[in-house]
Amino acid sequence: MATAALLFVSLFSLFYLFLFTTSLSSPTIITLPLYPSTNYPSSDPLLIFHHLSSLSLSRARHLKSPTTHSSSLEDIPLYSRSYGGYSISLSFGTPPQPLKFVMDTGSSLVWFPCTSRYLCSRCNFPNVDLKKIPTFIPKQSSSTKLVGCRNPKCSWIYGPTILSKCNDCGLSSRNCTQTCPPYFVEYALGSTLGFLLSETLDLPELKVSDFLVGCSIFSSRQPEGIAGFGRSVESIPSQLGLRRFAYCLVSRRYDDTPVSSDLILFTGSGKGDTKTEGLHYTPFSKNPNASSAIFQSHYYVPLRKINVGDKHVKIPYSLLVTKPDGNGGTIVDSGTTFTFMERAVFEPVSGEFVKQMANFALATDIQNLTGLSPCFKISGNETVGFPDLVFQFKGGANMKLPLENYIAFVARDVVCLTIVTDNNAIGPGRVHGGPAIILGSFQQQNYYIEYDLEDDRFGFKRHQCA
Q: What mean pLDDT is predicted for residues 275-292?
């Protein structure tokens, strides 16, 4: 019976996907404004950088080991878009109800704050009024439907054995009315709980019916919904059957400058469609066969070398390759601010910076205050030559970062490398396994980044995003 149930759910899932993706066969390009967050808990640059480095580290720990809970960073002050930092507006329902979502390539479920009774615990952030958090009201939408246990989309979240978890919903049952069980999703410093809905997603020039979305009735430290752009079947790219999607992350200015950039969705069959000119491409790496679903949601890319200046940094090859258990390799993540490297990667990279900048004293006091290292004192020097930082990917695609993407002025006459590592490593440079390198949004600033799902490759080029 278990085998029959699995076959039943799998066939219906494929059938639903076929109907859905073929309904979007006409090529369409949809552009959505993408906004960075500049609401920081302090105007002090040292505190801002400490805040961002701590959040980046917490996010990395979650992506590397989602089942391990860390309490050491629970008291980090947050703001409404701490998780991710770049947000879009999406409309759901009939008539449409617009809401803001954090755009996240590191997770897949799409959810919004839901019902007039929505509760957000520990969400006393600057510029967030707990009594006025925008929520989706299902009763005001004629297209709202609860997802039932027998709906194949329920199995997207709970797997093919979901029918065994629903009372009176076996294959022989004709009276199964039970709804899909509530979902619970944990993020780096927050979580959310709710019910699955089938709703209409209203995009510019395109309406998508029967879209799976989470109606969250309770969240912890997550006052804004998440738009999951990961690789799993419940994500926006998968549900829309996107050929590719791209974004350009406007630079973090650390002020209130109202600037935005674009998130671009390429739907439909795309026959005769031209590829983006000027991009450097590398194939996506195969996702690991790890038991954790979050690893299946990652975008793995084959980073093969890191150069500092003209020096090729020696990094253990075992950390650059993604193993079947999910350990090692590199992922791209819009929700991590500063790029994360395991200590076995970070130490030779940072050590090479120290070696090539030996004429400058280390600012150890600033390192302790910001959580970033190495930091250098450059006072009294009219011109400073910084070594280049280059990521070399399989296939010859080189990402030579602009200086502002990896070196930042964090105090007067002090600069720091904006890459983080974990000081609490377990074993020789290991942090609970998982990807060894996480390419964060700070290093992606002012790049046109493309996720070519049709040809299974990752593309990028320098571009002024604002």
A: 84
